[in-house]
Amino acid sequence: MINTLIKNIQKKNAPIVVGLDPMMNYIPEYIQRNAFEEYGETLKGAAEAIWIYNKGIIDATYDLIPAVKPQIAMYEQFGIEGLVAFHKTCAYAKEKGLVVIGDIKRGDIGSTSTAYAVGHLGKVKVGSKAYAGFDEDFVTVNPYLGTDGVKPFVDICKEENKGIFVLVKTSNPSSGEFQDKLVDGRPLYELVAEKVVEWGNECMGDRYSNVGCVVGATYPEMGKVLRKLMPKSYILVPGYGAQGGKAEDLVHYFNEDGLGAIVNSSRGIIAAYKQDKYSSFGEANYADASRQAVVDMIADINGALGR
């Protein structure tokens, strides 16, 4: 699957991913109103509004971007109806030729971790048949429980030609409370990075592994070190834009081949129409504002990379 992601990135010259992390206050009033008229102010009405909103953004940007990254918590808060919207969003993005990175941050042990991996990346057996559950192409994985929690995902990746991004150094302000702690004189995130390499060697694509990592844009110096520790691991980079990460900080996340990283923006894209820069589009043209924000982000990242 990493080969497919790289081909998409190269085809569109866009090392970015759009995070589909909808909040109700991002969704234009007319979309909410139409959904509530049909389903009432219910969980189903909210889920319908989210789905229509996501579809508009995908329709407006799919020709520019290689991938989307729906964050499952934004859907789970609406219960089963929210998960239906998550599933519809993933399926529709794949219909449009996009790689889907399910931001689920799962991690457990034994049969539980296997069930997560099967549900999101693999196929579950029902009698004599097998069905894909959510059927994402990649998912994010929390490595806190060690190899027991990660290996089931790697095994499914090998079976299904899928991929994972393992949390190594996250973009949130308190990440250092654990991730930066020294273990035998080295920060914990470096030890996790070495395990990512080990896991990744079992699951290689042509040039890069199907086992990638998550390294936040807000810690560029750490990113520089981690890039050297994981030369064949693709880096998913959150924290660009709204969280303070700048394009010029991201140069060292990429390898000399111009590959090796994909930069995420969520609300900076999907709620672009609420920004002063794009306010002229208005909420009726929210998807067009998102498209322009994608164009600007691609130019910003590629400009920093000198291409």
What report would you give on this structure?
With 307 residues, the protein is α/β, with parallel strands linked by helices. It has one domain (2-301): Aldolase class I (TIM Barrel). It contains twelve helices and twelve strands. It has helices spanning 2-12, 29-39, 43-61, 73-76, 79-95, 110-120, 147-160, 176-179, 188-201, 220-229, 267-270, 286-304, and strands spanning 16-18, 67-68, 99-106, 123-126, 129-132, 138-141, 163-169, 182-183, 186-187, 211-215, 235-237, 261-265. The strands form three sheets. Strands 1-2-3-6-7-10-11-12 form an eight-stranded parallel β-barrel, surrounded by seven helices. A two-stranded antiparallel ribbon has the order 4-5. A hairpin with a 2-residue loop joins strand 8 and strand 9. Helix 3 (43-61) runs parallel beside helix 5 (79-95) and helix 3 packs across helix 12. The protein is globular and about 60 Å long.
Short description:
The protein is built from twelve helices and twelve strands. The longest helix has 19 residues.
Question: Helices and strands: which structural class?
Answer: alpha/beta
CATH architecture: Alpha-Beta Barrel
Task: Provide the β-strand percentage band.
Answer: 15-25%
* Rg from Cα: 19 Å
CATH class type? Alpha Beta
* Number of alpha- plus pi-helical segments: 12
Series of secondary-structure elements, N-terminal to C-terminal: HEHHEHHEHEEEHEHEEHEHEEHH
List the domain count as a whole number: 1
Q: Summarize the biggest pleated sheet.
A: 8 strands, parallel, barrel
Through-space gap between termini: 25 Å
Query: What is the multimeric organization of the chains shown?
Result: single chain
> Based on CA inertia axes, which overall geometry fits?
globular
**Spatial strand sequence of the major β-sheet:** 1-2-3-6-7-10-11-12
**How many strands in all?**
12
Name given to the CATH homologous superfamily: Aldolase class I
Briefly note the CATH topology name: TIM Barrel
Note poorly predicted spans. none
- Helix fraction by DSSP (H/I, runs of at least 4): 40-55%
